[in-house]
Design a protein that fits this description.
heterotrimer; A alpha+beta (484); B mainly alpha (93); C alpha/beta (476); A: nine-stranded mixed sheet; three-stranded antiparallel sheet; elongated; C: alpha/beta; Amidase signature (AS) enzymes; 13% strand
Chain lengths: 484, 93, 476
């Protein structure tokens, strides 16, 4: 009898983020994106004979910011190593990276989820340099078909922080969500712009499966360079499915590096024709240890401010807004600050609704972000208050917002000018209701007899009579009073 | 002490093409050299730290300020083969 | 014959007795008449222009336009720089090494580049892939190496001084064999930016000259921190011109291990005579043991090749240098490098790759770096009792061309007396202390880190007392 053992995936992620410095990791050539080939080079990043690397101070600072944000301990002393391998995009034939003494170790990152939090261990954060870019001049596209490849060294030497997680993730969607929230954190701290399309954030995933309940790790495969959240999720999903099928068929999983092709959904092995890598790490003799002063680390820590995860937690707890509202509103520091400002003046849930709903749609065409629009937090709060108090209806509110966005004038002024204030006066409204009931005796009788649907008919008539300026709730109340 | 397979493996790691004859010479010479330096294997070094740098300098960092860069012409000047503003790479299989 | 030292030349220029143009013209002429094979490249046109400029300047720079030759391992903008290797044939750098730049700013005029063992790997300059360099004292012998060209050109009086580089003895040993003064400063004293790397944790640039004072003068213009070299040191203590004539109170330790095994009798005799001279000048002589130094060659020939194997990986025929025809990428790498490097370079790359390879790292590279620690400790202990250490520079005088080329390990033992100081990063100077069978013998003085001024001072006193006649027969 074969018993189907339930299998669980075990996933760890390695993320490379391009640090938001002005210049490269080991020389002071400018970083650029999309400039013509080889327009940002010097003898150092071209690895001319006799040159030496010099560590970028800002890269160290940003590395420390990233490591602190991930709860890592900053190593009292970290060193660089040479990782040796030959490839045309690696001009020295070694990458300067960190090996057994990285900048930060032993952190964790909380991924917020609709139903709780997921704690992901961070093994290490280290610094290194990026490789250059290979350009394929023929129309062939993929390497094998390319007739002529050339190297562009503009990207060569770009500073990277590599973040390695523990194998704490259990699904492809968790992995993608982890990456999204990590991206948000790194962006808000100014560590990196984390643009996956431009390659300033790249993720590799280590995937294995094991029987549920087991504590041992299965043989893992490495999925390389997935350049969007969706591809990461789909790639990992495909790999989990492949491994589960293999295990269920009683086959072994080979340790290998895979590439996910999003156009076909297939996984290809990237097995090299050459022998297994032997990187021959050695301590980089051209660089000296990085020994960050305690005071410097603490100073950096004090500049971090509230991390996105903490802000979201606070909003959900103190403001009672939903997971999704918190996620969207914390997308950027500026939006978060805007929301906080509005929420401090009016009901936070209404603030969240208005910002995510009407304000966003009204600003869509111009592309102006809320915090740069004429709808200042103060104005928006005033408007939300008018609607909340029933002073104006919600459709009038939209009209007023459009005017606020256009002119920046106070909402109350606009309401008065346009005569949008709802009639709240019971006497005036009562008289209209009385007239209408009298003018429609048949419907009035039916309503009295219990046909409640007809309330809508009378409310509509009142709104028509008042050109929409009556408070519909009030009208409904008055009709009920007079027909019961 | 070193066999031909090791010589071939190390030559591949080093990206050095060696003829059969060179491989044999290399095997003999490397074995000879290693024999001469083998005496360090008998030293008790368990408690001895390694020395990678003889200067006790730390935290040498460069300010993140752009420097002068090479023109594309200068960058490519010494390259044996160029194409499309880049350094030509042999066919990659 | 140009008999002036650099110091004397500067004085003569300042006194109006000669000019930079005249001295540079003379040096160019001598570099072109080069039976010793000291020069690989010459830069006559620019040198003449620079000399003219200096002569015309309202204020003369400190070195007043005195000519100099530079070892071909230092990058010189637009001037062919090969490091003695075919893989860099025709290579014209886009930048100049910091130390050369500093010398040019100080008013030295570069007349050419000198021959060397390929990538500074060797002790005889026979590993140059371009030409042999012959010892001016005996054209049948080697000048030592790897800075053989820089040593020979000073001995042959083509130029008053030159720059070399020393990784395990590559300045001191050829200085000894050619009868000139050669100095390796404290590791980090001189910027390595622009020095084509052999073994980065050991390489240092230093001067060759005919006198200790010229050595000090040359070094004084190249020391100091360079923002482009993270391992360069803040040199807060200026290099002073030595004047001492006595050694009163100076404690000199004679390194026992370096007077015993494998030292030629003539070398030993000249060294012992120098020890007696030092004593006569008032020095306190004691015996000192550096027990771990006997493992120096072993450690060095693992550490230096390991670093070299990765330093030389950049020579791949893509951005500069020679490139082999190939069908695919692997073949491209293997043929470009297999054909571009000479036998000794390939041997060391192989040895270094082996020492770093998985499965061998701990037994070779890591052990060697531990032995290095022991050697450092030996020196620390020694300098608790003495101010300076004394030994021969080379166990032998100049050997015959071809004598050691087929036995790599025999060649490696040429550096037995110079390697320990290199591993410990210490300054050391070689001065001629006499002749053995008509060939010069070098005396090595070494000191703790930053003791350059003390070394120059002691070396100067000894130099004056020994009064070595630094003119090889046949040099005119």
């Amino acid at each position: 009898m074969s018993t189907a053992v339930a299998l669980e995936p075990v996933i760890g992620i390695e993320i490379h983020v391009q640090l938001a410095t002005r210049t490269k990791m080991f020389c002071r050539c400018s970083l650029s994106f999309g400039d013509p080939p080889n327009t940002h080079t010097c003898p150092v990043c071209l690895a001319h004979p006799g040159v030496l690397p010099v560590v970028n101070a800002e890269a160290i600072r940003l590395g420390i910011v990233a490591a602190l944000a991930l709860g890592c301990e900053i190593a009292p002393r970290s060193v660089f190593h040479r990782k040796n391998y030959f490839y045309p995009d690696l001009p020295k034939a070694y990458q300067i990276t960190q090996f057994d003494e990285p900048l930060g170790v032993g952190g964790h990152f909380s991924v917020l989820q609709p139903d709780g939090e997921l704690d992901v261990g961070i093994t290490r954060v280290h610094l290194e340099e990026d490789a250059a870019k290979l350009l394929h001049l023929s129309s062939g596209g993929r390497r094998a078909g390319a007739e002529q490849s050339v190297v562009d060294f503009n990207r060569g030497g770009t500073p990277l922080a590599e973040i390695v997680t523990e194998p704490d993730l259990r699904s492809a969607s968790d992995a993608a969500e982890f990456l999204r929230q990590l991206q948000q954190t790194m962006r808000q701290l100014g560590v990196s712009d984390c643009n996956m399309e431009e390659g300033s954030m790249r993720a590799d995933a280590n995937v294995s499966v094991r029987p549920v309940g087991s504590t041992e790790l299965g043989t893992k495969t490495e999925l390389k360079n997935m350049n969007s959240f969706r591809f990461l999720e789909r790639g990992v999903e495909a790999e989990i499915a492949r491994q589960v099928a293999l295990v269920e068929a009683g086959e072994r999983i080979a340790q290998e590096t895979l590439h996910f092709d999003p156009s076909t959904g297939e996984l290809h092995s990237l097995r090299s024709k050459e022998e297994a890598h032997d990187y021959r790490y050695l301590p980089e003799p051209d660089l000296v240890p990085v020994v960050p002063a305690r005071e410097w680390v603490e100073e950096i820590r004090s500049t971090l401010g509230e991390l996105p995860v903490d802000r979201r937690r606070r909003w959900m707890a103190d403001f009672g807004i939903s997971f999704e509202d918190a996620e969207v509103l914390s997308e950027t520091v500026e939006l978060g600050a805007y929301f906080e400002d509005v929420a401090s003046r009016v009901d936070p849930k209404s603030a969240a609704n208005w910002i995510r709903g009407e304000l966003r749609s009204q600003l869509k065409d111009s592309g102006t972000p809320p915090w740069e629009s004429r709808a200042t937090p103060e104005r928006l709060a005033e408007l939300i208050q008018l609607v909340g108090d029933g002073q104006i209806g919600s459709s009038a509110g939209q009209e007023v917002l459009a005017e606020v966005v256009a002119s920046g004038r106070p909402p109350a002024q606009i309401v008065d000018e346009k005569g949008l204030r709802q009639i709240q006066d019971s006497d005036a409204l009562g008289a209209i209701v009385y007239e209408l009931l009298a003018a429609n005796p048949k419907e009035a009788e039916q309503l009295k007899a219990g046909k409640h649907k007809l309330i809508g008919f009378f409310v509509g008539q009142v709104m028509k009579e008042t050109k929409g300026s009556a408070d519909p709730k009030k009208v409904q109340e008055l009709i009920r009073e007079r027909t019961s | 002490m070193i066999d031909r397979d090791t010589v071939r493996h190390v030559a591949r790691l080093s990206r050095l093409r060696l003829s059969d004859e060179e491989q044999e010479t290399m095997r003999e010479e490397l074995s000879g050299i290693l024999e001469h330096i083998e005496h360090i294997q008998s030293l008790d070094l368990d408690d001895v730290p390694i020395t990678t740098h003889v200067v006790e300098v730390e935290n040498v960092l460069g300010e993140d300020v752009p420097h002068e860069e090479l023109s594309v012409e200068e960058a490519l000047r010494e390259a044996p083969e160029v194409a499309g503003g880049g350094f030509s790479v042999p066919r990659m299989g | 014959m140009e008999s002036r030292t650099a110091e004397e030349s500067i004085a003569a220029i300042l006194a109006g007795e000669t000019s930079s143009a005249e001295l540079v013209e003379d040096a160019i002429r001598r570099s072109e008449d080069d039976p010793w094979g000291a020069f690989l490249a010459r830069d006559g046109e620019r040198a003449r222009a620079r000399a003219k400029e200096i002569d015309a300047a309202a204020e003369r720079p400190p070195l007043a336009g005195v000519p100099i030759a530079i070892k071909d391992v230092l990058s010189t903008r637009d001037l062919e720089t090969t490091a003695g290797s075919q893989i860099l044939k025709g290579f014209r750098p886009v930048y100049t090494a910091t130390c050369v730049e500093r010398l040019e700013q100080a008013g030295a005029v570069v007349v050419g580049k000198t021959n060397m063992d390929e990538f500074a790997m060797g002790s005889s300059t026979e590993n140059s892939s371009y030409q042999l360099t012959k010892n001016p004292w005996d054209l049948g012998t080697v000048p030592g190496g790897s800075s053989g060209g820089s040593a020979a050109t000073v001995a042959a009086r083509q130029v008053p001084w030159s720059l070399g580089s020393d990784t395990g003895g590559s300045i001191r040993q050829p200085a000894a064999l050619c009868g000139v003064v050669g100095m390796k400063p404290t590791y980090g004293a001189v910027s390595r930016y622009g020095l084509i790397a052999f073994a980065s944790s050991l390489d240092q640039v230093g001067p060759f000259a005919r006198t200790v004072r010229d050595s000090a003068l040359l070094l004084s213009h190249i020391v100091g921190q360079d923002p482009r070299d993270s391992t360069s040191l803040d040199w807060w203590k200026p290099i002073e011109m030595p004047t001492a004539e006595r050694l009163d109170g100076v404690k000199i330790g004679v390194i026992q291990e370096m007077l015993d095994n494998g030292i030629e009798p003539g070398v030993k005799a000249a060294t012992e005579a120098a020890i007696a001279t030092a004593e006569g000048l008032g020095a306190e002589i004691t015996e000192v043991s550096l027990p771990s130094s006997r493992h120096g060659i072993a450690a060095y020939y693992l550490i230096a090749p390991a670093e070299a194997s990765t330093n030389l990986s950049r020579f791949d025929g893509m951005r500069y240098g020679a490139r082999a025809e190939a069908e695919d990428l692997l073949e491209h790498f293997e043929r470009t490098r297999g054909e571009g490097f000479g036998p000794e370079v390939k041997r060391r790359i192989m040895l270094g790759t082996f020492a770093l390879a998985s499965g061998y790292y701990d037994a070779y590279y890591a052990r060697a770096q531990k032995v290095r620690t022991l050697i450092v400790r030996d020196f620390v202990a020694a300098f608790e009792n003495v101010d300076l250490l004394l030994s021969p520079t080379s166990p032998t005088t100049a050997f015959k061309i071809g004598e050691r080329v087929d036995d790599p390990y025999a060649m490696y033992t040429s550096d037995v007396c110079t390697i320990p100081m290199s591993l410990a990063g210490l300054p050391a100077i070689s001065i001629p202390c006499g002749l053995a069978d008509g060939l010069p013998v070098g005396l090595q003085l070494s000191g703790p880190a930053f003791s350059e001024n003390d070394l120059f001072s002691a070396a100067h006193a000894l130099e004056q007392a020994i009064a070595f006649d630094a003119t090889p027969a046949g040099v005119a």
